[in-house]
Amino acid sequence: MSKELVKDPLNIIISGVGGQGNILATELLASALVEKGYFTTVGETYGASQRGGSVMSHVRISATTEYGVLIPLQQADIIVSFEPTDTLRVARDYANKSTLIITDSRPNYPLGVLIGEAQYPPVEAIEAELKKLSGQVQIIEATKLAVEAGNSQATNILLMGALTALPSVPIDIDDYERILEQRFSGQILEMNRKVLKIGYEQVK
Amino acid sequence: MEWMITANEPGKTYLMQGNEAISRGALEAGIRFAAAYPGSPSSEILTMLGHVADEMEIYAEWSTNETCALEACLGASFAGIRSLCVMKQNGLLVVGDALHSASLSGVKGGLVLVVADDPSAHSSTNEFDSRHQSRSAAVPMLEPANMQEAKEMVKWGFELSEQLQQLVMVRTVTRINHGRSSVILGEIPREKQVPKVIGEWDRMVAINWFKALQVAKVDQAQTIFEESPFNWYAGPETPDMMIVTCGTGWLYSVEAVEALGVKDSVGILKIGTTWPLPEKFIVNHLARTRKVLVVEEVDPFLEQNIANIIAYHPELNIELTGRHGQKVIPRNGELNPDVVRNALANMTGTTFQGPEVMLIPFEEAVPLPPRELTFCAGCPHRASFFLLKQTLRIQEGQGVVMGDIGCYTMGGQRAGHFLYNFLCCMGAGISAAEGLGQLTRFGFKQPVIALAGDSTFFHSCMPALVNAKYHDSNMLFVILDNSATAMTGFQPHPGIGLTAMGKTTEPISIQKVVEAIGCPVTVADPFDIAGTTEIVYQLLKQPGLKVLILKQECATLAVRKRKKAKVWVEQDLCRGDECGCGRFCSRVWGCPGNIWDYEAGKAKIDEVVCVGCGVCVSLCPAGAIKIEGGEACE
After folding, report:
1. Under an 8 A CB cutoff, do B590 and A74 touch?
2. Would you state the pLDDT for residue A111?
3. Which band of pLDDT confidence, cut at 50, 70 and 90, is reported for residue A1?
4. Which CATH number, 3.40.109.10, 3.40.50.920, 3.40.50.720, 1.10.3720.10, labels domain B232-348?
5. In which residue ranges of chain B is pLDDT below 70?
6. pLDDT above 60 (res A48)
7. Which CATH number is associated with domain B563-628?
């Protein structure tokens, strides 16, 4: 193994809004971890949340034993999130002073904001609070980069590229790419490979 | 992943969803028959079995409702075929009669019934605990604690079912069905079962003569469970306290004991066979302690059955705690590692040393807009609810709307302009409307509207429609036909013309069924807001039973089939806040594709979200929303 597990269990939360593809991205991540021989469990909440609600996946990685599928409050080591207000919601519940946060900066407006009953807070204010709550915050314009690369739907894989660049995550970009090769082919595979690398380079 | 559940690689480890593990377990048991009705969190099981049916030489169907599914499995079992039946907790209540009757007659070929409960009701209207039905129907039950066990229990469930000649229930919860973990594959038998001849004197008859046999089967299951490898104890020889747990509670308990550092004083008794309980096994372990905490999902089922055991064994001296009385675990809501750790800390007088956390005072925290559920961009339900609300506003008399279960349940929330007055269970909307519609004779003047989706129509509305027609109730029944069981992930239903195994079949026309019952029926397009509003208005003025089918395909399905149109706002034409429309497209219409450009003070389309249905084009009073290209919605 090229990278070691620095904390056991390592707890990762991947969060987004229904339809953004975080469940698929998480499943691919966990498959890569299982191939590396780690005990990996994933907890997902979806169903009704397919319809514009928040979707959160918990990933727990251990070298020694199987853990329950949910991460205890304030015990996420890494949070990867597709939407700024969701990032903050998740961080308030799960972050601690050493948590590392990667978030997209693109708002997805909830119904209350669309109809003018609620206000969407400035992204700078969200970032400031995230910094207080956690150890480190990195903002990536993931959707924008994915659109520029040719497909907004590839945002999920772009953020996974960023995740694999973190030293504390015990897989490399190649390990994730291998799983992509198992699942996709043709243009979709090429697009996913491309955005995975773009995401990786945002963190490096 | 279909290839995982059919892979012929015994000993290989894969990351599997609980539902994949269950499908795999059924295939390892050599099933040839599977039937289900969709319901989160169970739906993926039959979807996958349907996809691999040809390859694995099995039959799989999405039955019209849960009763049809269970009874179809009974039929296959009669010919000795191993059959898997799958449903969610509500479905188990739908099949209550069939379940209690079938357990009197027993089964021939193994029949395993997987029931997926949804603690905290993540995608349900309730968090019923299915385990009560296992006990009341005298059907033995297994409860897996992780994905591996889900596979093993389903597989072994078929052996047990044949040994006892009885149905076997496997109760799962959302965190098992939709969780993922490593699963080691077993072997899939090469030999395929063939149906046995049913002889002249062969019987599967539910009659109360068999009550004694039914009870004897429970006793026999109990004897088998005494030796079950799904039950074990880990911990000190004489612990100060014992956690008795099943299902997801097990791993949370292991983590809690570790986190609080109480390994030397707290043991864990893990039970996988939760009905009937292995009484001797439990008594032997309980005799080693004085204090017990029961950790389980939803109701204090295990806890109260243990209380029963304690009551019959005066030699035990146990202080029993759990969800009952809510002393340490709340009476409702799903378990999680924090609930379990806090309960254990409370009972052991320990405290948890967590990581360093920054607490931000409420007044300094950034106010966050809530993320409510809403209809997808381009969803025809948004149009249906908008035009129904609009019609009721211009209609004389306060209309009463009786809702139903599906994506359109959100029609009772903001997404549907809070249209519903009533919501119960699948099929209840039309039946309750029938009752209300009968009150006209006593002077009840309000228009009554019942709503249901297409899958719900077949599932449980047909007898209710017959009832409403036969008794000529004063009501309008609106069928929201989006050609999908959309909420649970687009399973086909009898109106679609496709089976679970991907075969085409003759679709059953809802319109023809309604006409055959003798009801006048109108079919309209919800995307034609003005035209359909007029139709609803006229229908509500007519006395007696009226049926309206609002037909437009689910947007999520349509977008996969059609070339997407480009929709945009001509911002020169948008009059912004000067318009007087009150930002109609984003504020009232509420489609996630219609957003507000705060810099320009004008409307805007979110091109990432928009599916190009074009309905907002017809709604903009300034004609500022434009559409180009794409294929029109039928």
Report:
1. no
2. 80
3. very low
4. 3.40.50.920
5. 631-634
6. no
7. 3.30.70.20
Of A46, A72, A115, the CB nearest to B338: A72
Chain B residues whose CB is inside 8 A of the A144 CB are none
Centroid of chain to Cα B551: 25
Interface contacts (A, B; CB < 8 Å): 193
Q: What's the pLDDT tens digit per position in A64-73?
A: 999 999 999 9
A68·B354 Cβ contact <8 A: no
Is the pLDDT at A196 greater than 50? The verdict is yes
Nearest chain B residue to A151 by CA: give it. Answer: B608
Which residue in the set A33, A39, A119 is minimally distant from B369, CB to CB?
A119
Residue B479 has a pLDDT of 97
Is B180 in contact with A41 (Cβ distance < 8 A)?
yes
Nearest CA in chain B to A143: B608
Which residue of B173, B181, B260, B611 to mutate against A (max A Cβ within 10 Å)? B181
Buried b (16+ CB within 10 A) or exposed e, B577-604: eebebebbbbebbbbbbbbbeeeeebbb
Domain boundary assignment for chain B: 2-192+203-226, 232-348, 380-559, 563-628
State the smallest CA–CA distance between residue B249 and chain A in angstroms: 9
C-alpha B595: how far from chain center: 32
Are B76 and B167 in contact by the 8 Å Cβ rule? The answer is no
Which of A67, A116, A125 is the closest to B251 by Cβ? A67
Yes or no: say if B120 and B91 are a contact pair by the CB < 8 Å rule.
no
pLDDT band at A50 (very low <50, low <70, confident <90, very high): very low
- Best mutation site among A11, A42, A51 for testing chain B: the one with the most B CBs within 10 Å? A51
In this model, does residue A116 exceed pLDDT 50? yes
Cβ atoms of B166 and B157 within 8 Å: the answer is: no
Residue with tokens 């049809």: B68
Q: Looking at the partner chain, which of B40, B175, B587 has a beta carbon nearest the beta carbon of A70? A: B175
Q: Which of A17, A114, A121 sits opposite B368 (nearest CB)?
A: A121
Instruction: Identify the CATH assignment for B380-559 out of 3.40.50.970, 3.30.420.10, 3.40.50.300, 3.40.50.1100.
Output: 3.40.50.970
Closest by CA position to B20, among listed B36, B33, B7: B7
B2-192+203-226 to CATH, choices 3.30.230.10, 3.40.190.120, 2.60.40.770, 3.40.50.970: 3.40.50.970
Give the angle B604-B606-B612 at the CA atoms, nearest 5°: 100
Whether B2-192+203-226 shares its CATH topology with B563-628 is answered: no
Beta strands in B191-330 (DSSP E): 232-234, 241-245, 266-270, 291-295, 319-321
pLDDT of residue B413: 86
Higher pLDDT, B449 or A112: B449
Tell me what the mean pLDDT of segment A68-92 comes to: 96
Whether residue A51 is predicted with pLDDT greater than 70 in this model: the reply is no
What pLDDT shows up at residue A2? 60
How far A204 CA sits from the closest chain B CA (Å)? 27
Contacts of A60 in chain B (CB under 8 A): none
Torsion sign, CA atoms B514, B520, B523, B529? negative
| Rounded Cα–Cα distance for residues B449 and B193 (Å) | 50
Residue B406 Cα, gap to closest chain A Cα (Å): 10
Please name the member of B13, B122, B370 whose beta carbon is closest to the beta carbon of A48.
Answer: B122
Measured between CA atoms, the residue of chain A closest to residue B375 is A51
Q: Global pTM?
A: 0.94
**Domains of chain A from N-terminus onward:** 10-203 (3.40.920.10)
Provide the ipTM: 0.94
Q: Give yes or no for a contact between B245 and B146, defined as CB atoms under 8 angstroms apart.
A: no
Confidence of residue A19 (pLDDT cuts 50, 70, 90): low
Chain B contact probe: residue of A83, A85, A111 with most B CBs at under 10 A: A111
pLDDT (0 to 100) of residue B632? 55
